[in-house]
Every structure is written in C-alpha cells, then in structure tokens.
Design brief:
By secondary structure, the chain is α/β, with parallel strands linked by helices. The protein is built from seven helices and 15 strands. Helices cover about 25% and strands about 20% of the residues. The strands form five sheets. Strands 3-2-1-6-5-4 form a six-stranded mixed beta sheet, with helices on one face. Strands 7-8-13 form a three-stranded parallel beta sheet. The chain has a two-stranded antiparallel ribbon with strand order 9-10.
C-alpha cells in the first residue's frame, strides 16, 4: 500500500487550489480525479453556448488571477476549459486521472486514513474532499410517471436546441441554468413552458457597474454559514443573470412578453399529465423582492 502525506479527492477548482498551495510549500500530495481531463464539470456538464455568469476579473485561482484584455467580459466554455488545462500544466500539479476514490476510512491507530481507489489502495496523513456538492444529476421520483415517449433531459446533459425532438419544451426550474436554457430555446423558435421556483432575480448592471462588483463591495460573499437565516439558505437558487452576449439580465416578466408560458412549481405527474402548484404569483413576487433587496444593499 502506497503512503503519501496528503490525498486530494477531486480535481476541480477547489482541489487544484489546494494542490497549488501544497506545492508552493513543498508538501507531498496527489489529486485523484475520476475524469480523464481537467475541467470535467465545465467540459462535460455544460451546454455548448455556456459562459461564466461572473465577470472575468473574478477568476482568482491562486497564482493565476485573470490578467487579460477583457476583465468585464465572460469566459465562454472553450476558454474556461483552456484556462484549467493551462493552470494544471503551468504549475505541474500532480493529477491522477481516471481514478475514482471508493472509500476513505480512519486508520485504527488514528494516524491517518486508508483510501481505496479504482487504481489501488493508499495511506494518507491528510485527506481533502474537494468533490463539490452538485456532481450528480437529480431527478424527482415522479419523473418515472412521465410517459416514455416524452424525452427527459437533465440540464447537465443539455447541449443545444437541435438536440431536442420537435415540439414544445418544458423547462423545470428558474434559477441560472433553467433561465439560460429556456432563453436559448425560445430565441431559437421553440415553444417554451417554464416551471418557476423562487430563485432571486438580480440586475446584470446597476448604476453603471456590474452587479457582481456591487455584491463584492457590500460583503455579500463574505457571509458565513452561521449568519444565514437557515441551513436551507445555502442551497437557494443562483440569481437570474447570464454572461452570454456580453452579459445581461434574465427576467421572468420579459420571458412572458417574449412568449414563454410561466407555471408554478412542478408537483408531480399522473395519467400522462404533469401537475403544477398554484404558486406562480408567489414565485414572481419573491424574485421581484430579491432584486429590490439587492439594489437597496
């Protein structure tokens, strides 16, 4: 069994940042990454026209802060992938690809951990779990009750409008991904129904400045978990903004003017029908309120 001081599980931005700092300190470590290339989530779980929703100047991986000519722009998918590839190469980070961590267990003597992987077993003094919390597509149980002739596709597997069969499309969820996908679909001539939630709306720009810069200035991102109103607040939907075409706001009211049919929360499926809660008005009010609160600081 190989022994190593520190094992990092996951080669995304958290794992790479941890590796960078350990390497600067000369500490022995290795990163186990299940995918075969860097930037797995961005490469394989995002649609073709995807862009960052935060401006380029906010790219702050240690040792590689953004220094390009378009700080207020938004990286496209290919640029995101290239950034991660270059980061790994530049700092020669010890990534071991196509290696899945199967189990982490404390040693009996209390001096470290036994780590079982698809490529062998290891002992480590330290283990850093950097797998993130959004890695597995989630389908509600009632999806099994939707007729088999209706194509169901998770947002992580959506690529472009041509991928979908002809006909109307129901998008479930009105946070960042759902809103961006719905916008792309109706702008490409598809009939779109959007099942809304309570994700907050935010202006892309306010008083001549990008909204993200305002949020940084007012300390929004400095909030710690203990200051949140509840544990569930950690998982609130991301604000309705887009980085596509230079960045713009996403607004449910505008969606209606553009022809999208809005619905309440999806609640189930029965006898070939999809059921919705009568809470559309409430959902819209919450999104409107969130935008007002953001602008008031």
């Amino acid at each position: 069994m190989d022994k190593i001081e520190t094992i990092i599980v996951g080669g995304g931005q958290a794992g790479l940042s941890t590796s960078y700092h350990l390497k600067q300190l000369g500490r022995e470590h290795i990163i186990f990454e299940a995918a075969e290339k860097p930037a797995h989530a961005w490469r394989n779980d995002r649609w073709d026209s995807f862009t960052f929703v935060t401006p380029n100047w906010s790219i702050l991986l240690p040792g590689a802060h953004y220094a390009g000519i378009d700080p207020d722009g938004f990286f496209k998918k290919a640029e995101i992938i290239a950034y991660f590839e270059q980061y790994v190469e530049k700092f020669d980070l010890p990534l071991r690809y196509i290696t899945t961590v199967l189990e982490v267990a404390p040693l009996e003597n209390g001096n470290g951990y036994q780590v079982k992987t698809s490529g062998g077993n290891y002992q480590a003094r330290n283990v850093v779990i950097a797998t993130g919390s959004f890695q597995k597509p989630k389908f509600p149980a009632f999806s099994a009750d939707i007729p088999a002739n209706i194509k169901q596709l998770h947002s992580g597997r959506y690529r472009n409008p041509d991928q979908l069969p002809e006909g109307a499309v129901l998008v479930v969820g009105s946070a960042q991904s759902g809103m961006q996908i719905a916008e792309e679909l109706y702008q490409n001539g598809r009939v779109v129904y959007l099942s809304t939630g309570t994700a907050p709306r935010a202006p892309r720009r306010y008083r001549g400045r990008e909204i993200f810069s305002w949020l940084v200035d007012i300390g929004f991102f400095d909030q710690t978990v203990d200051t949140l109103p509840s544990q569930k607040a950690r998982f609130i939907g991301n604000p309705q903004v887009s980085g596509k075409d230079g960045g713009h706001s996403l607004n449910l009211h505008q969606f209606v003017r553009d022809g999208v049919t809005l619905l309440g929360h999806i609640s189930g499926a029965q006898a070939g029908r999809v059921l919705f809660k009568p809470d559309l008005k409430e959902n819209l009010a919450k999104s409107d309120k969130a935008e007002k609160e953001i602008m008031e600081g």
